[in-house]
Design a protein that fits this description.
Residues 261-381 form the Thiolase C-terminal domain. By secondary structure, this protein is α+β, with helices and mostly antiparallel strands. The chain has helices spanning 26-41, 66-73, 91-104, 135-138, 146-156, 161-181, 215-219, 251-257, 282-293, 311-320, 333-336, 343-358, and strands spanning 4-11, 15-16, 50-54, 82-85, 110-118, 191-194, 200-203, 240-250, 263-272, 302-305, 362-369, 373-381. The protein is globular.
């Protein structure tokens, strides 16, 4: 099996729903990311053998295989194909896995993996068109929405409203601190956006983090999914717009092209979990990817567990005993947003840049997914070649 390395990774800033990036078509946004990835890596796009993109709501401007469409719009050679995948919130993490697998087995040597979602322009569930689950499914499982699943997780793991809100407040605090310190500057590209007056603006900073967010302010918000519930808009991920992409290669190809490998893919996992609780998959995905890698929780310098709802990282910490100091250190989707199909690639991009910043070695990414699934990925920072 070939060793798979990451040589470049970039993302857009994340825009709020109907915010600064809402004027950008998602296919155009992803095309911009592909162009930026090639510009940063200095790799000839003729070397790219496939573009794999995650996208959840594949309808309207996100329909018709947005990976191929964006590659053509980005000016890639027409011989470069593209394919779009949907594994719900982990779609672009799965794109990374598919790219890694293609390289590892020797089918390809250079693959771009990424994702995009404009939740402003293509609303969540718009691809469902009001359809319902088959009775063959609903007779077997209680197919509730993710908000109610988050409520059940909080109840099962005895996570209080105060804990949920305190975690959410810390996500904003960490994100604002990271922005102030410039921690995201290397990983983000500048995108042309528009303000409320329709004026053109340069967008470089994530739009979601809110100064002054506190446990007290969050405690005033009403339950979002059930009358006596604890899950609110404030302790849930933000509806967002964004895109991200990574350039993966075999180590041999990187050496041939004279490109510096920055990370290697150590191990991958994907699991199914209870489709009613739905969001519990990150725990078995974490254990499975660690088992595959031969590493332990103590070996991992930084963890990213997607903050779909505050109950997810909180229950994950209870189950793994990992301290908050190593988890989502620069904030997560509660503050920074969750552009569904882009989130896996976005979080991987942020994880590898933060590992480089602190000089860490191993990072682990796990994302819960609709219908009860999760992906897990471990990456290792590589020393620069002399």
């Amino acid at each position: 099996m070939k060793e798979v390395v990451i040589v470049e990774a970039v993302r857009t800033p994340v825009g709020k729903r109907n915010g600064l990036l809402s004027g950008q078509r998602p296919d155009e946004l992803f095309a911009l990311v592909l162009q930026e990835l090639i510009e940063r890596s200095k790799v000839d796009p003729n070397e790219v053998e496939d573009v794999i993109a995650g996208c959840v709501s594949q309808v309207g401007e996100q329909a018709g295989d947005i990976a191929r469409i964006a590659a053509l719009m980005a000016g890639f050679p027409l011989e470069v194909p593209g394919v779009t995948v949907d594994r719900q919130c982990g779609s672009s993490q799965q794109a990374i896995h598919f790219a890694s697998q293609a390289i590892a087995c020797g089918d390809m040597d250079v693959v771009i993996a990424g994702g995009v979602e404009s939740m402003s322009r293509v609303p969540m569930f718009s691809n469902m068109k009001g359809s319902k689950y088959s009775e063959q499914l609903t007779e077997k499982y209680d197919m509730i929405n993710q908000g109610l699943s988050a409520e059940r997780i909080a109840e099962k793991w005895e996570i209080s409203k105060e804990e949920l809100d305190a975690y959410a407040a810390s996500s904003h605090e960490r994100a604002l601190h990271a922005i102030k310190e410039g921690r995201f500057e290397r990983e983000t590209m500048t995108v042309e956006g528009a303000n409320e007056q329709g004026e053109s603006v340069k967008v470089k900073v994530d739009q979601g983090p809110r100064p002054g967010t506190s446990t007290t302010s969050l405690s005033q918000l009403k339950p979002a999914f059930k009358e006596d519930g604890n899950i609110t808009a404030g302790n849930s991920s933000q509806i967002s717009d964004g895109a991200a992409a990574l350039l993966l290669m075999s180590r041999e190809k990187a050496e041939e092209l004279g490109v510096q490998p920055r990370f290697r893919i150590v191990a991958r996992s994907v699991v199914g979990s209870d489709p009613t609780l739905m969001l519990t998959g990150p725990v078995p995905a974490t254990h499975k990817v660690l088992q595959k890698s031969g590493l332990s929780l103590d070996d991992i310098d930084l963890f990213e567990v997607n903050e779909a709802f505050a109950s997810v990282p909180l229950f994950w910490m209870k189950e793994t005993k990992v301290e908050h100091a190593r988890l989502n250190v620069n904030g997560g989707a509660i503050a920074l947003g969750h552009p569904l199909g882009a989130t896996g690639a976005k979080l991987m991009t942020s994880l590898l840049h933060e590992l480089e910043r602190i000089g860490g070695r191993y990072g682990l990414l796990a994302i819960c997914e609709g219908l009860g699934m999760a992906n897990g990925t471990i990456i290792e920072r590589l020393e620069k070649q002399k």
